[in-house]
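Field: COMPLEX_INPUT
Field: COMPONENT_COUNT = two
Field: RESIDUE_TOTAL = 223
Field: MODE = joint
Values follow.
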Amino acid sequence: AQRVTQPEKLLSVFKGAPVELKCNYSYSGSPELFWYVQYSRQRLQLLLRHISRESIKGFTADLNKGETSFHLKKPFAQEEDSAMYYCALASGGSYIPTFGRGTSLIVHP
Amino acid sequence: GAGVSQSPSNKVTEKGKDVELRCDPISGHTALYWYRQSLGQGLEFLIYFQGNSAPDKSGLPSDRFSAERTGGSVSTLTIQRTQQEDSAVYLCASSRSGAANTQYFGPGTRLTVL
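Field: COMPLEX_OUTPUT
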């Protein structure tokens, strides 16, 4: 069975500090991994996916198959990054993506 | 273009009443998903449609929950005899096909059962 773990429910940092939101997964095949973000009073939306290897709003995430991780990083957090972040896994064998429980990021001024 | 829409945005009902939640996916998206989002619980998968078929209903919490999709487009989620524990935000998402594609979410319906 596939599983996504986001170990931190809440992450609190100050503006300008580096931030890393952790995501670990369990899946034996080749996963598709995503980060979704939900800003206050907005709908859940895609932030980035690993196959595109993009940097969105300064965030990057690298798939580490050895550690089965897909941590989301940003070198200098901004107040507008405060949001709920969900890591998600999709596999070729299932039409149902698996979401982590989410991490609430709060960036203090 | 238009994104995923859901109605109503808010629904307050009394315990024991039935409610219907509606989702309009992005045109051309064959896959449609319903999730429930509760505080501290993340996203709970409810049901998945591919076209009008629901190959996976494994997430529906009880037989009080049902869903249908017609014309490969609009979907309704029905909760019968609502209970207080049904209070949550119900999210709908659509994608071109299957989980490996980006999911586009609606704004959600906030259900409050008194």
